[in-house]
Write a structure and sequence with these properties.
Blueprint (H helix, E strand, L loop, with lengths): L11 E6 L3 E10 L4 H10 L7 E12 L1 H16 L5 E3 L3 H9 L8 E2 L6
Parallel strand pairs: 2-3, 3-4, 4-5
Antiparallel strand pairs: 1-2
């Protein structure tokens, strides 16, 4: 019996508050259908006590231009609000999107926390 292809992991946005960081962990496929959910989470994300806000892209399996647009709109809004938004780099396919669109130099990428 042939193996059935595995279904992609459903999209999720998990918000994790650490001492000095509010981390938004994205899982699955970020596209036209799932971008509104991310947009809501990003708009509601309120870091406490000047904490940094990080969007963790490591668990994304796919991202289209709609997802990229939501991330870039949030990044610009957060900077305008005086926050220091950062991204934790995703897998090569996700990072290639940032490179292809010449956005690698416009956003800040940081190393993942040591406890991950």
């Amino acid at each position: 019996m042939p193996d059935r292809p595995s279904l992609p992991e459903p999209f999720r946005c998990d918000v994790v508050q650490a001492d000095d960081e509010l981390r938004i962990v994205l899982t699955g496929e970020l596209d036209l259908a799932t971008s509104p959910a991310l947009d809501r989470v990003l708009q509601d994300a309120e870091p406490s006590g000047g904490a940094r806000v990080a969007v963790d892209l490591r668990r994304l399996t796919f991202m289209d231009s709609t997802g990229l647009r939501v991330l870039m709109r949030w990044d610009a809004a957060a900077r305008s609000a005086g926050l220091d938004p950062v991204f934790i780099a995703g897998p090569p396919a996700i990072q290639r999107i940032f490179a292809t669109t010449r956005l690698l130099d416009r956003v800040t990428f940081v190393e993942p926390p040591a406890d991950d």
